[in-house]
Amino acid sequence: MDPRLAEILAEVKARRGRVLALTGAGISAESGIPTFRGKEGFWVVGSRNYMPQEMATLEMFERNPAEVWRWYLYRFGVCLRAEPNEGHRALVALDRALGERFHLVTQNIDGLHLRAGASRERTYCIHGDAAYVRCADECTLDLVAMPDMGVRDGETPFTAADRRTLSCPRCGGWLRPHVLWFDEYYDEHWYKMQSALRAADRADLVLVVGTSGATNLPSQIGDIAWRRAIAMVDVNPEDNPFAARARSMARGFAARGSASEQLPAIVSALC
Questions:
Q1: What's the sign of the alpha-carbon dihedral 216, 36, 81, 83?
Q2: Which residues are bridge partners to 19 per DSSP?
Q3: 3.40.50.720, 3.30.2280.10, 3.40.50.1220, 3.30.300.30: which CATH number matches 1-32+83-127+188-271?
Q4: Radius of gyration of the chain (CA)
Q5: What residues are labeled active site?
Q6: Which of 6, 63, 94, 130 holds its CA 20 to 30 A away from the CA of 47?
Q7: Cα(24)–Cα(113) distance, integer angstroms
Q8: What is the pTM of this model?
Q9: pLDDT digits (tens, 9 = 90+) for 73-88
């Protein structure tokens, strides 16, 4: 381990500091889940090729809910086939070692952190969770477990039986994926926005894993770390805005490499 990184981690450990882990698509890419903005995110409807930023919207769902669901059923199938990797397991070890001094903010909807054993009460899925659905018309503000609809491929048609399965049991309208769409906003009830920001306000170390901070709430967490001058460690195979920010901070470090490569040693140093 780089001596500078070891020094930062040793200081956090000695102070019994609070750690906030912020994870993105990079940690799940090691489990075989394509990044959302990669070529696998595109979807063909008729003769048109849609980008993820078009498919993953409330506007598209209201216009063509069956096609949006067909896309998500395929993507959810990819998540179901994936398994947690060493990066996920390392963060679970940190969760168990630090207890209330650890929180996890993840942009990933795949559920791999929770399937690896992460504490549900300290894991904030700020972009939603593929394990749940909810009424699109919000006749209730409760989440419902995602029905078991099997593993789909990109050619599986959407059927009348699928429509019945994805009907709200209370009002009969559409159920929707419990995900944050591009034309929607973070909030506390569905996406734990305030909980994530509070965790950042209390953290002594922000451990960034596999994300560039391209979305708003992760960027806000980076801003909080910067203003508070706390420790920040970025883990990513490639350079990114979080890495640049970490390098500019007095207690920052950019660790080049994958989560599976870097996290076990980092976690060991913190425990």
A1: negative
A2: 102, 205
A3: 3.40.50.1220
A4: 19
A5: 127
A6: 130
A7: 11
A8: 0.93
A9: 988 888 888 899 999 9
